[in-house]
Amino acid sequence: MRSLALLASLLTGCAVGPDYVRPETPVPTSFPGAPGRGVTLRSDWWRAFREPELDRLVEAAFKANADLRAAVARVETAAAQFEEVEAAALPQVNGTGSDVGSRISQGSFLPINSSFTRSRRSYRAGLATAFELDFWGRVRRAEEAARARLLAGEGAAENVRLTLAASVVRAYADLRAADESASAADELVAVRTEELAFVRKRVAVGSAGPDAVAAAEQALASAVADRASVRRRRAQAESLIGFLTGAPAYAAAPSVRPLRAPASPKAGLPAAVLARRPDVRAAEQALVEATAQVGLQVASRLPAFSLTGAFGTESRELTDMFGGPTETRSLGVDFTVPLLDWGRGAARVEAAEAGVRAAAAEYERAAYQALREVRDALADVRESGVAADSADRVERASRESFRLAQARSEAGQSGPAELLEARRRLAESRLVVARLRFERAAAHADLCRALGGADPVAGP
User: 144 to each of 83, 153, 298, 310, how far by Cα in Å?
Assistant: First the structure.
């Protein structure tokens, strides 16, 4: 037994095939245009909006979304498969037993007398085991592949969760922007209607031509179309939220309170982003699995050794099973040597090596895609912030202009045309502000998703 244990330890000392090495991909030292300061990104980054309804919707999506539930189920499947492969490295012990009755031919060479009759019966019970000696590391490569498959599934599920949260935030921001735009769109339609009536009065007294009426009608039709677009956008945002949260009948009460984006998170180092991005981690684990598959296929072409053993008892009488000289045992080593497979083993190795090249290309694509998304998101946050701040200033100026025009109209210092123009400019500025607030909030969500979620040092 000691010699067999020593043999087993010697035979498990190597693993054929390549070991995984992370591909070298050019990574910049910093993101161009990234701000020098920013808040630390947390795993529940959407709570920074300070919107209880948004928090509730995100949590509902995590519980009910079909894509996320499917991703979690795939992780559970991979975990069970890993446990199965891991258990294969340990000896499997089986209980055995039999109750066999037989009748031999009277014309055979076997003797038939008072001790050995034609009808015979035997009882057997025992334990049997078989243990593969992992000489070439086949079992270890299988464990590496199964572990990598599990980690890749976890990364994919985390990426679905992160993308789902960003999608809910974008849909909710679109809904709130549509609510904010609705009153401005109604005001713009009202102004355009009054302008058309005013132009028609001017035409009636001869102070304006028919072309002025056509222009006013065109402006009114455009305002009505814009209002319909706002209403359609709100309905679609409600429908999308219902789909993401598993609540098809979802309906939100209108709210005119603006949704403001929180402070932007800091980007950090590109290498740290790649290590944090769940999709990049999943792509890397897919490459780890592909690399292990090469060793697995190489080992399948080499001799395989198994340690077998059995211990039990066998007797002609059931009452004598555990008494007297009925003990049976066996211990040995089995081996198989592939001799001729007409190139099938070599083809499997070539296919596995091609799989490594494909997985390496996918990892490189995922890494570059991640860096590009962060860079684009940083630009979106920066420029949408500038545009939103500028629109806020325009709205404040339009409100002041409307206030002054209203004061002059009440004092009899100006006519209705000036007041209508001030009202129209204010309504148009409110529409622009609502749209840019949505773009700013959406850019914030895209940046949080592009950065891969929480910074490891930030905690939950």
Answer: 12, 14, 15, 31
